[in-house]
Amino acid sequence: MVSSTLFAAFLPLLGFVLAQDGSITGPTSSAAAAGYSCDATKCKLPDCNCASTDPPGGLKPEDTPMFVVFTADDAVQSYTLDAVNQFLAQRKNPNGCQPKMTYYTSLNFTNYTLVTDWYVAGNEIADHTMTHVGTPPENEVSGNLVALNQLAGIPLKSIQGFRAPFLNYSVDTLKMLASLGFTYDSSSSASVPVTDDDTDAFWPYSLDYGMANDCLAVEGLCKGEPKLPGFWELPMYALFDNRGVDGPHLMDPWLDAANGETAVNDTATLEYLKSTFTAHYNGKRQPLGLYTHPIHVSRSVPGTTVTNSTINMINAFLDWAQEQPNTWIVSSIQLLEWVRNPVPISQLDSFAPLKCSTPSVDSSLKICNGIPQNENGLLAHCAFPDFPFYTCYGCPQEPPSPAQPAPPQATESGGQTRFRLAANCSTPFWDPIKGECICNSATCAFTDQSRPIGPNGANLTGDQVSSTGDGTDASATSNPYVPFNGNGAAPLASLPAGLWAATVVGVVGALAGAYGAVARF
Ligand SMILES: *[C@@H]1O[C@H](CO)[C@@H](O)[C@H](O)[C@H]1NC(C)=O
Ligand SMILES: *[C@@H]1O[C@H](CO)[C@@H](O)[C@H](O)[C@H]1NC(C)=O
Ligand SMILES: *[C@@H]1O[C@H](CO)[C@@H](O)[C@H](O)[C@H]1NC(C)=O
Ligand SMILES: *[C@@H]1O[C@H](CO)[C@@H](O)[C@H](O)[C@H]1NC(C)=O
Ligand SMILES: *[C@@H]1O[C@H](CO)[C@@H](O)[C@H](O)[C@H]1NC(C)=O
Ligand SMILES: *[C@@H]1O[C@H](CO)[C@@H](O)[C@H](O)[C@H]1NC(C)=O
Ligand SMILES: *[C@@H]1O[C@H](CO)[C@@H](O)[C@H](O)[C@H]1NC(C)=O
Ligand SMILES: [Zn+2]
């Protein structure tokens, strides 16, 4: 049970999250403004990719998986993880793995231990500045890395991505990210539908030849700038209601009124989520994004106003999307790994970044390592008045700040300080109390849980298929395969693409009576 002081301390989050928007109102780029040219004979994967609407590596769209990128922004709290879990926890990708997502984490009001848990569960942790500022100074960005490493035990090398608060970034922000060793940014918008000639819905690309998105929105971008070889941009793909290019929706689309109406209408939102997905799927398979501020769809945060209708609508969309063959829900870094090494659908079985594994740690071991059953009772409570938090790695003397992201550790009453993650150990194996790594070898480390990939909705609960070929047994009896969409239904699995439009209409029609309009909050 959360104490009332904790409630009060975490509450201010709502205030500033509601103020942020991440909305666009029209095209943020055009071919003329982009002035983009890229020499595809010189720009080669895996480290260079020209901005293009075509799938990477010359793949045909029909050989290309359909990726749905799921991201969350801002502070990590029990409320926000509950919110994400209500959409992803019950799902499986076609290889039997629960989908991973990316958390662009800012640190005010973040409960560090939950970041550790989320990371150890296989999700991507990325940088969203320490105190949530637009066009951030460098210490807001680098301090976020340091504090997440020190207080959440996230290995520095695994924090590869950045999203700017309010999507407010500049040319200098991108240069700074590249100089700090980040792999990618995901702050720009793809703001023109894939069905329009002038679409800016490019697959993720490297900035060897400059940016091609947001050319009308950010000063000094594009026409070859900034040139950042090997640094990637993952555009955020807008969704479009029935007004097309004049009806874009970017973050938290379920908070927007659609089609020029004045009130939120979940039926209309579901309709355009599906129609945008279908346009991507039947076109060049550019990814679709669900870019969320999970606090807006939390049912547990005090003062919540989200309706069950909205939650159910988002799940209905994901249910439907997962019924379309070769659809995968992924994190930003999983998408990028695939773009850099784009294997066709037929070879996804052996594609490591989409696999899932569990760290091999005895469940009875008492070790503060990001696994709830192991770390229970071992967390340090850092009772700062502004935002109290829990951590495995010892409380700092003061909350981390851009000026001091790693304050000295406060000594516990017993006189013991904790050891921060060693660079040569993985988070689930690091014992911050003893200061030792319980596993350093690749063989004892992780157990692959992925299943051979079948057609979406295939019944893999029956006779086990052969192992994945990497020496691990794919038939762990403790984790029987559950059909990836959780209900075993696969009615659309073999539906030809041409029949989709009719299906969309049918499904929406059936739901129209079920969902009422809800007010925006
Ligand atoms: C913070 O994490 C602790 C430990 O998991 C949990 O008990 C508490 O409810 C969390 N509080 C919030 C607001 O996230
Ligand atoms: C974040 O926390 C710092 C340090 O407590 C504080 O100075 C700052 O005002 C906070 N920022 C926001 C946006 O709440
Ligand atoms: C972006 O952030 C900077 C620095 O915080 C601020 O001065 C500027 O007004 C912001 N721009 C927008 C469009 O919000
Ligand atoms: C909600 O949207 C649906 C689908 O676009 C539409 O048929 C319905 O009339 C809308 N409801 C309201 C109250 O506007
Ligand atoms: C909303 O859904 C939750 C979880 O299924 C349920 O407990 C709650 O009663 C529902 N609320 C309403 C108003 O239907
Ligand atoms: C890991 O690093 C620590 C400290 O540098 C060192 O003592 C230890 O031997 C290293 N362990 C391995 C397995 O490399
Ligand atoms: C899946 O296969 C198993 C074993 O062949 C069978 O018992 C089970 O009923 C099947 N499930 C479905 C949903 O077809
Ligand atoms: Zn934010």
From TrEMBL:
Keywords on record: Membrane, Signal, Transmembrane, Transmembrane helix
Annotated transmembrane regions: 497-518
Polar residues: bias regions: 458-474
Signal sequence annotation: 1-19
GO terms (BP aspect): carbohydrate metabolic process
Gene3D superfamilies recorded: Glycoside hydrolase/deacetylase
Region (Disordered): 455-474
Database matches in PANTHER family: CHITIN DEACETYLASE-LIKE 4, PTHR45985
Stated name of the protein: NodB homology domain-containing protein
